Structures are given as C-alpha cells and as structure tokens.
Amino acid sequence: MLAGHFPGHPIVPGAWLLAWVVAAAHAQRAVRGVKRIKFLRPLAPAQPFECALRESGDTMRFTLTSDGAVIADGSLQLAPKS
User: Fold this and answer.
1) What 3-state class would DSSP assign to 5?
2) 3-state SS class at 16
3) I want to staple 64 with a disulfide (CB 3.0 to 4.6 A). Which of 27, 70, 71, 81 is the partner?
4) CA-wise closest residue to 70 among 39, 45, 34, 48
5) What are phi and psi of 50, to 5 degrees?
6) d(CA 29, CA 44)
7) Cα–Cα distances in Å, from 47 out to 54, 75, 80?
8) What is the pLDDT of residue 28?
9) How would DSSP label each residue in 27-72?
10) Average of pLDDT values for 10-34?
C-alpha cells in the first residue's frame, strides 16, 4: 500500500499518520481540527510506531514515536464536551 510513496525510499505519508492520530483521538473525544503538527523524521512502511495522547481541556496533544525516537508531535482541537 505505501511502497509507491517516494519509490526507492518508501515512507509513510504524513497525511496517513495524521489521519491515524485523529481516528485514535476521536475514539476518546470528538475532534474539531488540527491545531499544530510537526513531522520530525520519516517512518518506513514496515516500521512499528506508538502514539501517546494527552487531553488537556479543549486540546489533545499527541506524540508519535518509533524505536524511542519522536516521529511527529502536535495538538488537535477538541469539540466541546456534551
């Protein structure tokens, strides 16, 4: 599925990683949008990664890591609690 993104040196697209984070956060609380994201290093298609989510008021902060290194971090805007 991801082998075609940058042929010869495939990486997982940032849009895919962001969609994954939003889906994981949405399982806990409704997400309104992305406040900030910073991609720090590439992720290979077969490389495992972890996502840490931390809710603080109307913000969900996230960090993606692989092999102890931060791949991306940022924050999401959450919908008000109903």
Assistant:
1) coil
2) helix
3) 71
4) 39
5) -125, 150
6) 29
7) 23, 23, 35
8) 94
9) TTS-EEEEEEEEE-S---TT---EEEEEEETTEEEEEEEETTEEEE
10) 95
